[in-house]
Design brief:
Helix content: over 70%
Strand content: under 5%
Keywords: Membrane, Transmembrane, Transmembrane helix
Shape: elongated
């Protein structure tokens, strides 16, 4: 459990698979999202969205880590 908290849940389970998909199929994902939303989605906008999602995941992971450290400090 400590290893998962160190790496970050959100990073491990969201960003790694999503980053792998975006690296392997950037044009297909951009075209699919363009068709789904009805407006043009470029590879650049996918990159910006990925960085925004990474910032959110880091914020979530820091909150998880902070709560775990505070509970460990009060228990120990």
């Amino acid at each position: 459990m400590t290893v998962l908290r160190t790496m970050g849940y959100c990073f491990l389970f969201v960003m790694v698979p999503l980053g792998g998909l975006l690296a392997a199929y950037p044009d297909q994902i951009a075209n699919g999202l363009s068709a789904l939303f009805g407006f043009g989605v470029t590879r650049g906008s996918l990159g910006i969205a990925f960085l925004f999602l990474a910032a959110i995941c880091m914020r979530v992971d820091m909150g998880i880590r902070r709560r775990a450290q505070s509970s460990a400090a009060t228990a120990g």
